[in-house]
Amino acid sequence: MRFGVLCNGTEFQKWQVLAMEELIGEGHKLELLIKDARVEQKSHPPSKFHHFFRRNLFFRIYQRWICIPSAKKIMDFSKSLEGIDMLTCSVEKVGYKEYFNKEEVRAIETYKLDFILRFGFNILHGEILNAAKFGVWSFHHDDEINYRGGPPGFWEIYQKAPVNGAILQRLTEKLDAGIILKKGYMKTILHSYSGNLDQLLYLTASWPAQVAREILRFPDEFEKMSVTTAPLYRIPDNFQMILFFLKLLKNRIKFYYRDLLAAEVWNVGLIKKPIHEVALGVEQIENKEITWLRQFAKTKYLADPFGFFENKKLHILVENYSYSKQQAHISEIIWDSSRDSFSVPITIIEEEKHLSYPFIVKDQEILYCIPESYRTKNIKLYRRNFSEEAFIEDRILLTGVDAIDPALFFYEQRWWLFFTEKKYSNALLFIYYADSINGHFQPHARNPVKTDVRSARPGGTPFLYEDQLYRPAQDCSITYGGRVVVNKVTRLTTEHFEEHPVKILEPIKNSPFPKGLHTLSQVGPYTLIDGKKYRINRYFFLSQMKEKLKKRNRPDV
Fold first, then answer.
1. Least buried of 30, 186, 244, 353, by fewest C-beta within 10 Å?
2. Do 530 and 515 touch, CB atoms closer than 8 A?
3. Tell me: the pLDDT tens digits for 527-550?
4. Is domain 2-256 annotated with CATH 3.30.10.20?
């Protein structure tokens, strides 16, 4: 596709450079830079400027000298733009709207662009919006349903919103009613404005390339327009900035307490109900329904339960994590139904690198386990050897991916592999598929198919109920493994994916583990879950301090 860029010249913010480089790297051609002529004009009405500066003095200082996200670092992109035409354009301002003159629009149209990225100018109206085949694309780094205006990513921290939305939209004549090309939700980084901005800008930088890729295959599917009625937010005044600093300080204290001292302690529980009753029932899970495993060590925990039956006994595979070793392996536990008790965990799969999330799947009479092993950059399939009661490495399903919580299941004549990736492990969902479990797994046409920290990361076994597919996922918007969201999958093909949440399972109140819930798995007529609490742990503290010192000494790339 041929594209142009609305800009202020050949200097761009780092995330904007990444967006253009990804487009060019995928074969799209940058044909034209459309420069704002006002960039070289220095004069401003002094009375209005000084009044505005006094009212927003604290934010201006904070933005210019204190909050400096790496994504907004200014980069000279001129060498990469050699040979690219530049057209300097002026606009006529009518109220808050900006209009290009007709001659300049005609000049832009001669380049026969497919789309124009807006990295400059302001609120555009008029013929420029249709000067390219697929219009002008503009980012809004907030959830437009709740926040119009700006600054991006600021008011979510101020109002303690758990998620920060973002959209890439095709601009229309109606303000705040663009055609949504891509939308996503990330966890708000409440203790750091620069960190929140970096997350928003870096993650969304890949969106133009993804949308261009999808338009080439599905050109008529982008019709949903925003219908926001959100209040209009503006740059915070000095009093609001004082409150913001106090909120930021409070959030930072809470963050560092959790990050350095509050070690997670997970445990596994058994519910004697089928998964559809637990996942789709009206009531929340109650502690009296759960048989919890006994905790065997203070510096370890058990999590991510998946199970299978063997010789009429229920076997449970879990992540067995050691804080002292800072690593986990897969352990097997057998449930004694007659005494409603569990055996001591026995190591069943162990590697040099960390293993977790031992997802169980069956193909005909063969039982497999697919543990998470993202550090190896592979998704491995282990086969159950029933005679030896062991799991043996069978094959590598997928290589070159740092997959988090892979979930494999058979649905409508295909095998589907869902996972997130380490970089954005809670927000970006990827799908691969194959005709057989031993076949070649191919990427979904729309990868990543979902950007939503509230319901992307797999959280257990997908299941069918009344011929409808449901997918448990983790909601990590407030905390990692905060709760489980049950999604109803309404469309799953090699080219489309649609789902929406139908039930939220909260952590189990009045239980020993009331702070989190992130696995819901099916094993015959039973359901396995896990729960979380916090405990101060010296090994956790030392490992976190070591990691922070390592990051501080790491050179900025």
1. 353
2. no
3. 999 999 999 999 999 999 988 787
4. no
